[in-house]
Amino acid sequence: MQGKTKVYFRNLEKQINNLIMKRQSALIFGARQTGKTTLVKKCLSKKSNVIDFPLQNPEIRLEMESDPSTIIRQLSACPKGSYVFIDEAQKAPEIFDGVQYIIDKGSACFIITGSSARKLRRSGVNMLPGRVKMFRLDPMQWNEFGWLKANVLKTVKIDNLNCIKDYSFKKTLIYGSLPGIVTLGDDEDRRDFLKAYTHIYLEEEIRAEALSRNIGAFGRFLELAAHDSGGNPNHAKLSSDSGVSAPTIKEFYNLLVDTLIVEKVDPYLKNARKRILKTPRYYFFDIGVRNVLARVPLTDELINAQKGKLFEHAVILEIIRRIRSLNEDYKVYYWRTSGGAEVDCIIDTGTLLIPIEIKASAKVSLSDLSGLRSFMESYSDQIEHAYVITNGRVPEQLSPNITAVPWNYM
After folding, report:
1. pLDDT for the residue 353
2. Residue 353, by phi and psi: left (phi above 0), alpha (psi -120 to 50) or beta?
3. Domains identified in the chain and CATH numbers
4. Are 257 and 280 contacting, i.e. CB atoms less than 8 angstroms apart?
């Protein structure tokens, strides 16, 4: 979505266009650089009566902060039926009451973006309940690259949107899938982009959350948390290694969730018949950002060293993003017993459980899937089929109710 010459179709684009056509309002959250601004500008490009409030502009932000009713006066002077684009709304949450006033009058419809729900909630801001539809824009998904050959997992079926040939799945394991990364043609530029991104995140987001006095400790925590991404974090060890208390570690994780930097995956505990680990797992929202924060080398050698971790990370993120883009109310969990039996991902559709094991190898056998089979036995009345996501070439039936699926057939 970013870059001067490459603008890609995004999964959220159709929903935003439909919303604009119906003259409804939207609030779009997403981490920095996921393409929110580019997407909204593309969707509004054919409209003539668009009014912009880019709150990253200090002059405009100061104007709105000092007198929030300014937005009412300015929009009251505009033609009725205008489209209003407010970018980075968390920078001036005081304007939301004015936005509600304009929406209730029917004078304009709004497309609002933000990169942190935390600041809005902590400010006690009016989140416009019943007046806006909320969306989330993620880094690019596999169908947005055009990589899918088929959809064996019908529950999360999605169609290809683009055909991007100059960026590979292997690249995403090193540099991630932020749109700005994809449009760059040089790996050195990608490394510079990611280093700048993480620096800006630390300097701007954390200081904006009034944690500047803890920024050194938070920086140490970020590196450790990035290394642990996808695992079960040991808060006591993180506390010892970063020099802050265990409650502060918990608050740091909450900050990462609220600023959309990590995805939280809870353990599946319903009707547990075995002793289950109860700590959540956290996956950094983009693998490239995770790699930079973990201070690992952004080279092909990284894949050789961490292939299993990176592959699992990519598959989990894709499942979470896909459920979100399909606007389904599915929940994603993991399962791990105290004895070590584990299932990497469980999709709870509300009526069925879909257990998914993730293996970075091309070939798997039933003997490799003891954790998956244990879970299926424990919840047999809720499971019709289970899957193993692999690096294989074509799907393979491992048993009547377990299928091995290459990642690009998912």
Report:
1. 98
2. beta
3. 11-136 (3.40.50.300), 142-409 (no CATH)
4. no
